């Protein structure tokens, strides 16, 4: 959409307000999708929820690619948004539930890595399709998303269902077969199988393939347990998950990714081809540093990467705010150093975001909720994410008009300082812990970051 908006505005003759609505409406609809996805995935399973997300997004992409007028284009964007909400909630949860503790950070960050690769491919395709006619080019930019949607719908059927969801349904035999496939050793599979049964409220000594499912296997009553009568540990988990999703977007990443052509134009890059190439650089930076983060999450840990990333974002956002302010105050003459500093600061900001806050947001929120609360807890966190994404994407142009581009990034820098303090005091380290240990971690407090003996033993078994 970032590149397509340049051409949509010219073709459909829409104003800046309509552009903002078009950019942000996807996230408001994703809010609906994410809130619905939690209960849906508890009911039909994780795999079929991903299939449903793909089908919804496929329909939205076809409508956007057709897009004869603004109303139909907006409708397609809304439908696609519902699919996005489903996918953003279920992909990290599915990844976390099939991963072992030793590789969970790597595997659960892969959805975010693939999103960044998708953004990069979007930028590259925008540059390629911009050579087509005005009427055809932007429609292909949006409609081509139907192809990966179709591939995902069929591809996911070849993958195993979440063993944790199967155990919640009482299907112990099926769950054990999958755990034997996705664990490093048979001993690790047995330990994981036992811990999940205990977490689900099933007798750990049960040897039957099918047992009576525990209560609330399809999400009944979960909202009350999450929001109305949460235990102290669940309350802390919810605060941590909502907080990290809130700050992911209020620190400005959506403004940079979605409106990077306008930022570069403000910094002095005016040619359309060069603007699109500059945005390809943003996508390439984002993908590269998220790839690096996937290998660091299980070695360095979530907390250390998160604090380092946020501190770097504070510095680069301040630099970007300063350089853009200098550009705007000296509009009559071009300050080459300020223009160059704006572009460099944008790339370094994206790098700091992508090596920490970007992937860790999804990893952290997918792994900290207790088993029976995980799907709907994650859906609440994703809903907050989408609201803040929509808020930033739909208001950035208006804010930058009111307080200048430089002032907007100074504002984001201030929010990033608050985010660092929030993460430091409220988010404990989760590296090396099994999903079944998370509630205990949040019960004890932020300083309790060392794994239990069971996890240490499991790690040793994996190494053997």
Automatic annotation (TrEMBL):
The membrane spanning regions, by residue number, are 48-66, 72-94, 106-124, 136-157, 275-297, 304-324, 336-365, 405-427
Q: Cross-referenced Pfam families, in alphabetical order?
A: Sugar_tr
Q: How does it sit in the membrane?
A: Multi-pass membrane protein
Q: Name one GO cellular component term.
A: membrane
Key word Zinc present: no
Domain Major facilitator superfamily (MFS) profile residues, every copy: 1-431
Indicate yes or no for the key word Cytoplasm. Answer: no
| Similarity comment: family membership | Belongs to the major facilitator superfamily. Sugar transporter (TC 2.A.1.1) family.
Q: What is this protein called?
A: Sugar_tr domain-containing protein
Q: Which organism is it from?
A: Cephalotus follicularis
Cite the source lineage. Eukaryota, Viridiplantae, Streptophyta, Embryophyta, Tracheophyta
């Amino acid at each position: 959409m970032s590149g397509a908006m340049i051409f949509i505005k010219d073709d459909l003759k829409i104003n800046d307000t309509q552009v903002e609505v078009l950019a942000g409406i996807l996230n408001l609809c994703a809010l609906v999708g994410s809130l619905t996805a939690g209960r849906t995935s508890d009911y039909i399973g994780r795999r079929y929820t991903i299939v449903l997300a793909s089908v919804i997004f496929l329909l939205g992409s076809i409508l956007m690619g057709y897009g004869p007028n603004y109303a139909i284009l907006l409708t397609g964007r809304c439908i696609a948004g519902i699919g996005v909400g489903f996918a953003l909630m279920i992909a990290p949860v599915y990844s976390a539930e099939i991963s072992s503790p030793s590789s969970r950070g790597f595997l659960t960050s892969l959805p975010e890595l693939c999103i960044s690769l998708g953004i990069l491919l979007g930028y590259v395709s925008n540059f390629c399709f911009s050579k087509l006619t005005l009427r055809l080019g932007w429609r292909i930019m949006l409609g081509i998303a139907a192809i990966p949607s179709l591939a995902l719908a069929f591809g996911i059927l070849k993958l195993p269902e979440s063993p944790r969801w199967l155990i919640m349904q009482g299907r112990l035999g099926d769950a054990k077969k999958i755990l034997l496939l996705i664990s490093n050793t048979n001993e690790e599979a047995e330990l994981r199988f036992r811990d999940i049964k205990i977490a689900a409220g099933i007798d750990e000594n049960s040897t039957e393939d099918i047992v009576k499912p525990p209560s609330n296997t399809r999400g009944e009553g979960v909202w009350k347990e999450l929001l109305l009568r949460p235990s102290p540990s669940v309350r802390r988990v919810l605060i941590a998950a909502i907080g990290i999703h809130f700050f992911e977007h209020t620190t400005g990443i959506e403004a940079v990714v979605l409106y990077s052509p306008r930022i570069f134009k403000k910094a002095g890059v005016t040619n359309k081809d060069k603007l699109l190439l500059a945005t390809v650089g943003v996508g390439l930076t984002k993908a590269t540093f998220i790839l690096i983060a996937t290998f660091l999450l299980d070695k360095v840990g979530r907390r250390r990467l998160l604090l380092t990333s946020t501190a770097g974002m504070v510095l680069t956002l301040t630099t970007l705010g300063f350089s853009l302010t200098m550009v705007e105050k000296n509009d009559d003459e071009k300050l080459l150093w300020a223009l160059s500093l704006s572009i460099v600061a944008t790339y370094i900001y994206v790098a700091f975001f992508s090596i920490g806050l970007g992937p860790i947001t999804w990893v952290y929120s997918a792994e900290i909720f207790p088993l029976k609360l995980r799907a709907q807890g994650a859906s609440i966190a994703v809903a907050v994410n989408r609201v803040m994404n929509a808020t930033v994407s739909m208001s950035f142009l208006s804010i930058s008009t009111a307080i200048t581009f430089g002032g907007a990034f100074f504002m984001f820098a201030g929010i990033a300082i608050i985010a660092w303090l929030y993460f430091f005091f409220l988010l404990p380290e989760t590296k090396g812990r099994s999903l079944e240990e998370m509630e205990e971690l949040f019960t004890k407090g932020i300083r309790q970051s060392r794994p239990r003996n069971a996890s240490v033993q499991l790690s040793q078994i994996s190494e053997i």
